[in-house]
């Protein structure tokens, strides 16, 4: 098991009711983290509409997750 | 240069910064808060951003534009916080030798900014409801 | 609305005039006097125009843009007289519901303004020479 | 013969040394006026690069010329 920090933004943060939480997880990839926290962030969006960053770098959903990582889950963006 | 700000965007100061004796064409795009979206009457908007990554990614977009169209000055500033109807939410300016690059680079920057940066927009409607706006690419 | 002016173009006042609660995208193009053209170092520019027809034709160009892209506000102001490096020679602004129309209409207007209006540009070079600039379409 | 006024602009005006002159002419079309005054406006530009207006309306080179017309000869334009 790894200990990671997950941060939620915008509608994910509102759905989760918290901006950040610490998880014990056996998630291998960022996609696994997204799936494991689906009840928390409440997203029905396809993964391809969302984005993920790990330790302040944009990442892919198949990026591997290591102990101590900070995983940022971004719902569909809408700048401009 | 890309920046996020919680204050009113100072479009005059930005324009002045872009001046360059070698530039013959200057193209600006501003996104303004509209009073209507998809049939809802909008009262105000709220922008949330994850600033560290928005800035990194915004700078990357500008660098890409400068690589596609060499020798141009380009700048983008994006708001955070609560905005009223008519407020400027985003400003993109490009100064280039000729107008073609100025238009194309300006368009490239705003198009990428809208789909790549971790920025979210919540609309507050006159009805009292509110809602997070879906991304452009998701809608299409 | 199209206008010719012998005075510095007041870009702030023009931007303010374009504001509209229904507009979500605002695109501006400015033509600036460059310090170089086709290998010559330019000291200043002089614009001559036949104003009655330039204004008629300029208004026609704007009306065409508004027909192609309905519901937009569009304005263009063009300088006459002597201009120095960095001066704004022409300002085109378009406010529209969405950015696509704003960019396309702005581009349409400046492209047509450059080839249809009876306006001529004389470059005064640092060398002391001067020359009338050939039209874009003639060069291509 | 008709009496017309011809106005020159920019390089045409500089070449002609005057901005305006009155001509007695049998020109049938605007193109005829351009040809008849070629020595004055000194243009080597193809007709297609130049423009003409008659009585403050943009016109075609094959527009007919009437007595009393004011013909404006425009060298290649370069706005913006």
Could you please describe the fold and organization of this structure?
The complex is a heterotetramer, with two copies of chain A (80 residues) and two copies of chain B (140 residues). Chain A has helices at residues 10-16, 30-36, 38-41; strands at residues 2-8, 20-25, 51-54, 57-59, 70-74. Chain A is built from three helices and five strands, in the order βαβααβββ. Chain A is 22% helix and 31% strand. The mean pLDDT of chain A is 95. Chain A is of the alpha+beta class. Chain A has a five-stranded mixed β-sheet. Chain B has four helices and nine strands. Chain B is an alpha+beta fold. Chain B has helices at residues 11-18, 51-68, 99-116, 136-139, and strands at 2-5, 25-32, 36-37, 40-49, 73-79, 81-84, 88-96, 119-125, 130-132. In chain B, the strands form two sheets. In chain B, strands 3, 4, 6, 8 and 9 form a five-stranded antiparallel β-sheet that branches. Chain B has a four-stranded mixed β-sheet with strand order 1-5-7-2, sandwiched between helices. In chain B, a hairpin with a 4-residue loop joins β8 (119-125) and β9. At the B-C interface, α1, β2 and α3 of B face α1, β2 and α3 of C. β2 (25-32) of chain B pairs antiparallel with β2 (25-32) of chain C, so a sheet runs across the interface.
